């Protein structure tokens, strides 16, 4: 008999007649949709982003208010007419840098983290347009808000490029002075529909 076999035999003998105590955790409560959306708004605002809530009928006006006359670019698949916006047809980085804002949709919003995920479908456009202009106006439908990251992952295609946005782009130097707009838009304005 090997030492391993001897140890396993002694463990079996010690456990003989002992019934395992199994604790069954309570079933998780399905989050209320209103609670999820409220949490999403709270967390997005914690990141110093602006959140505007509107109805589907008021979406055009809410986006126009968020842009406040700034020049803007939209992805070719955006299902919303944004007056005066350029439709991205492969604008260069220099051309994008001359534009003040971008308007996109999102693939999903995560309540727990206040994160917006883009998977760059036609209504979100290519990654460059969401990173170069100084203002990102991102449209999120309330039905797209999920509780947490695992819920979001379940909805996303891992073969698609993903951009995860948690507030405006920001970093801190060694003295912890916050600098915004270094790696993406300096301002994030979320338009929450529904």
Automatic annotation (TrEMBL):
Pfam families linked to this entry: LUD_dom
Domain LUD span(s) in chain numbering: 95-193
Protein's name in the database: LUD domain-containing protein
